[in-house]
Design brief:
TIM Barrel, alpha/beta, 319 residues, globular
Amino acid sequence: MSTSKLEQLQQFTEVVADTGDIDAIERFKPQDATTNPSLILKAVDLPAFQPLMHTAAELYRKADSRESAEAAALDFLSTAIGADISKRVPGYVSTEVDARLSFRTEATVERVKSLADAYANLGVSPDRILFKIASTWEGIRAAEQLEKEGLRCNLTLLFSFAQAVACAQAGVTLISPFVGRIYDWYCQHRGVDHIPAEEDPGVLSVRRIYHYYKSHGYATIVMGASFRNTGEIEALAGCDKLTISPALLEQLSQDTGTLERRLMPNNVQKETVLPLDEADFRWQLNEDAMATEKLAEGIRKFAADQNTLLDRIRSLASA
């Protein structure tokens, strides 16, 4: 029997399921699973999670302020779904922190501690969880503090080399550079509908980050994310982790062609980069139009999906 590209990929890259769909997780048996507000919004439509919406509505109804009601409902859904997923994967489950806190360091720290407590109450050790925080300067500073306190972080919405450098300096556990959203931006700005994988700016961005981390001995895990096609995934074969949607996992599982390893930790290009302070970080991000636009857009999109979810919870709470 021929070996699929998914099976070949799993020989040198940890495959992560980018979904809250329990059936997909059980089918593909990934090492880890990631969620975000958009995926949670989809997940609560699944029959298995419908009762959780009613519990969230009850928590919202009983809270003594709108702010505490929103936090209670959102954190309950995130941790309840995450706890269920944790029973089905051996590794990490990534749980998003409220996107509206992306520019508030202390508020992010406190929210992560609250999520960690909620997971502990559900019998899930915090060391099984990666707390997803947007790669803003404030988010990176929050992650730096949390890592020192033993709470592991996944820095998401990462589009620029400056963000990756700052995350490594902060000692975060894992970063999620977004391949597909970089690809989308460059397709739009070049006026094309396709860019080959070997020229794909998203692929090239992750390769540069991977080489930089490995050549300088950073322990931070590189997990490519947000893929548009299997070509991008194949071009990053060998990356520490890749988080992949069920649709693309299916395509890889049906393809029995040969998959070549493209990234290896002992075969990297060394690049010297000076440490970044806040001014350097903000300037370099400002100079990268794609990263600036996609970071802001990503935060807005996650916040919008959170608000849609909250509207549904409020509707149930007032019924």
